[in-house]
Amino acid sequence: TTTYLTGIQTSGEPHIGNYVGAIKPALAAVESHDTKYFLADYHSLNAVKDPEKLRHDVRSVAAAWLACGLDPARTLIYRQSSIPEVFELMVILTNVTAKGLMNRSHAYKAARDRNEAAGASDLDGGVNMGLFNYPILMAADILVMETDYVPVGRDQQQHIEYTADIAKAFNHHYGEHYAFPIPQGVYPEGESSVLPGIDGRKMSKSYDNHIPMFLPENRLKKLVRRIPTDSTPVEAPKDPDTSSVFQLLRQFASEDQAAATRKRLEAGGMGWGELKNELFEVLNATFGPMRERYTELMEPGSALDGILAEGAERARERSRATLAKVRAAVGID
Ligand code: TYM
């Protein structure tokens, strides 16, 4: 069977971009594939230096998966930190990974440029080795489970390609003893599949421009109202393709509804306020029904802890088997 695996960083509550880019497509694959979805908690140490917040965010991402319909009897769900083999594999992989490849990472380059512009010191937000090594840790997540497909948003494409490069480098050296399957990314269709945030940039926890999936109704409404729009008067025609509000709407509305709204915007007579109300209604209809289950799971002592403990055990069994082969292949056994 083919293995599908994906992870979400636990640095903030999961947002509607995570849903469109990863959660929804990942859950659609459950029927026909061996699925493993995990919480990238060690990855988030780079962004989160507050232990209480980190604990909260881990629960929040786990609860989101479950509230969206992940069934732990069919899909393995676990915390990255429960699997020491991931970190052992990362050390092995660093030795077949070219430093030049990491130098070209978009995330690293962006952080380095911001850092230089701001004159940030190493202690307050400068580039650290966790950020530099991030793609190798991600490769270890994927390869330790001998993954075939990784459902992710387009923003992760370079990371998936790096993982394939790193796997090929390992196979080049050790392939006659053991070879990793070469993983492929599975991306949502359409150019608009990377969701904009409420400031128009890519929706991201690190830009703090995200719409959390399970905001209470009144806060969701307020947040949607805050999405900036231009001062085009109500009567004037508007271009849906340059409007973040419309880009968001069309990910969650039915095709018919999106087409009708597009027509009304282009014709003139529909104001931004009305469009925002429509977006709020659609988001509330999508996430409202899951919100209750999410809130239940977030309670201390909910079923969450047991599910993650069991996931940890099964995931370790699987990753131990990979590491036994990898260790033997490199000559450390
Ligand atoms: P993260 O936590 O930033 O995002 C989790 C998933 O959500 C997708 N996503 C988006 N999709 C569409 N529009 C957006 N605005 C948007 N923002 C986020 C991401 O593409 C991703 O699929 N490095 C990963 C976590 C990770 C991982 C892995 C993923 C660690 N190890 C192994 C897959 C396999 C990340 O930071 O995703």
Automatic annotation (TrEMBL):
Keywords: Aminoacyl-tRNA synthetase, ATP-binding, Ligase, Nucleotide-binding, Protein biosynthesis
Gene Ontology annotations for the cellular component aspect, listed alphabetically: cytosol
Enzyme class: ligase
EC number: 6.1.1.2
Gene Ontology BP terms: tryptophanyl-tRNA aminoacylation
Keyword Nucleotide-binding listed: yes
GO molecular function per UniProt: ATP binding; tryptophan-tRNA ligase activity
Catalytic activity: tRNA(Trp) + L-tryptophan + ATP = L-tryptophyl-tRNA(Trp) + AMP + diphosphate + H(+)
InterPro entries found in the cross-reference section: aa-tRNA-synth_Ic (IPR002305), Rossmann-like_a/b/a_fold (IPR014729), Trp-tRNA-ligase (IPR002306), Trp-tRNA_synthetase (IPR050203)
Alphabetized NCBIfam families for the sequence: PRK12556.1 (NF009207), trpS (TIGR00233)
PANTHER family: TRYPTOPHAN--TRNA LIGASE, MITOCHONDRIAL (PTHR43766)
Family of the protein in this entry: Belongs to the class-I aminoacyl-tRNA synthetase family.
Protein name per its UniProtKB record: Tryptophan--tRNA ligase
Protein source organism: Lipingzhangella halophila
